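[job 4417] fold queue: 2 targets
>>> target A
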Amino acid sequence: MSNDTALAEYLFLLRARFVILAVPVVLAIITTFVGGVPVGILVLASGTLLCAVLFIWSSLRTLSGDAQLLPSAELEDAAPPEASLFAQKNRLLRAIRDLENEHALGRLTEEDFETSREQYRAELRQVLESSDALLAPHREAAELLVEEYRRQKANSAYRSAPPKPPLECPKCKVSNEGDARFCKSCAFELGGNA
């Protein structure tokens, strides 16, 4: 679907929602003049309830995947592939975590839990493989950068100081790090008093 078509459909749905909201108000005003205030309030209340049910229904249809997403939700398709894969990975991990919580609470049978978890894991495996394939051309350059960083760290003055030899506690004979002030076993002071 092109962006222009999606935008036109979105604007149509937006206008339709305003019309749906206006219909109960207009009917309430008309019935108030015809049947009195109690009838007008009843019509307004029932129309408001109907509108609320319709909005919840459309939201549920969108969440379940039965309805088409609005253009703002389709903008993820225009994002770079890395961002889309990252979003899919996070969505699947969140779904698996939610599934495990539901199972722990006893809301899912063991069979449903295993089936759903395997489906999510299979999708997650595909997303991770796609992500690896997408990043494969950059892996060699990243490894070279890491190796260069390690070489620089090894040659720096920070690494040139030799480590202190281990200290043995005179009280309990446990070996401690060379810069320890207290024994890690008996808490005897090792510093200059040892």
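>>> target B
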Amino acid sequence: MIQTIEWKALPREKGTKSEVKQKRREGYIPAELYGKGHPNVSVYISKKDLLKRPKGLFFINVLVEGDENPKLCILKDIQYNYLGDEPIHVDLYEVTHGVEIDVEVPVEFIGKPKGLELGGIFEPHLHSIVIRTTPKNIPEKITIDVSNLGLGEVLHVRDIPPIEGVRIMTPGDETVAVVSEPEVEVTEEETAGASA
């Protein structure tokens, strides 16, 4: 199961731009909590918490001030300013134990493709895959062994071994990785010979 971190949040009233600006100066970012079967909740979260979040997938126990019940969420989206360097809004998806959700999971490749020994070049095409499963079955990553990938061979999503309790939602014909054949360099002599 993926790790769980904790964020504290402050309630937020919608439609007050001056308050949002003030809270941003205080180090907070507006966020929206939503999920199937859950009411939408507008809050502020700490910018510091967001910036020090772990890499990859993780759960967030959101503790909203004045609400005794923590909300278990996943980070759905971060909106940035026009320069792309400052987070300005966050979407958090509240999950329910036992209810399936679609989530994007990173892919990790292991093994050395046998096609590399013949001069091939390993080219990953997908770095994440969308799966459908319950919160407790969400893996931190999907590990794919590419040892048997030969020269010129393609690994598709449908080739990924089944994972118990998990359905892969990314289309099966999408390319995950390929071992491409090396480009043959044509020398000047060969070019001259061909034109003679």
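[job 4417] complete. Note on B: The mean pLDDT is 89.
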